[in-house]
Amino acid sequence: MIYSFQVITLFPDIIQASMGLGVFSQAQKSGILTLSCINPREFTSDIHKTVDDRPFGGGDGMVMLPEPLEKSISTAKREHSRSKVLYMSPQGTPLTHLKATALSREEGLIIVCGRYGGIDQRVINSFVDEEISIGDYVISGGELAACVLMDCVSRFIPGVLGHKDSAEKDSFAGGLLEHPNFTKPREYKGQNVPEVLLSGHHKKIQEWKRSMSILVTMVKRPDLIKAHISQTELRGLLVFWQQIPKDQRKTLGIEQLHEKDFHG
Ligand code: SAH
Questions:
Q1: Which of 132, 213, 252, 255 is buried most deeply by CB count within 10 Å?
Q2: Domain 171-263 class?
Q3: Residues 6 or more apart from 139 whose CB is under 8 A from it?
């Protein structure tokens, strides 16, 4: 099964330029997924190829007309009738790791990008399965949001990333942020790579990564930690943390932690 992304957009160049490099375009070449754009401007009947108009009731910003959008969506559906129709919108469900994995299990996505003041509400009511937001702020068009979504979803489509498990080890996969990473040189600006990572002791390294993952999450995103850690594990972590020399805590990005943070 080849996963299909179909983007409905007035600015297909933004999509092609953003997705034309890296793992996503590699996956297209390998035949794991396809990407195509449909431009609502091609489904207009007037000489000016009008795709928007003033909102009824007044107000700022033009609104995208329903008919060119409807025709674009039905064209997309004719090719991939089982794809889910999304509308990128600041009013949508926030995009998260969990949402992206769920979307990766669809057969394909038809992604509607708004521009100007947005699209006519009746298009959403009649044709959109789900509205998705990339965060609580407004950007000027759905294209960059669609690219974020496609990049993120594609990482969970089997075969897109080189190592089968690399998406599973990144931040958020286990509900936690990733441990800090180090490469050469061993000493840099007076900061040393933790000894354990040079030890070659696989089990100890795994334990270190798990513990560091929790500590980093405690520092940067305490809101994520609650569900993922038991009191017993917290006590073990306190011991782990106490054994890290003070100057090393800075290298690891966890110098803000205090003993009281381990008392639930
Ligand atoms: N007037 C609308 C915003 C329109 S912004 C409102 O207040 O809700 C123009 C287009 O940009 C939208 O149609 C949408 O497709 C896209 N967009 C803006 N912010 C977004 C966000 N946070 N997530 C996803 N898409 C967004």
A1: 132
A2: mainly alpha
A3: 90, 145
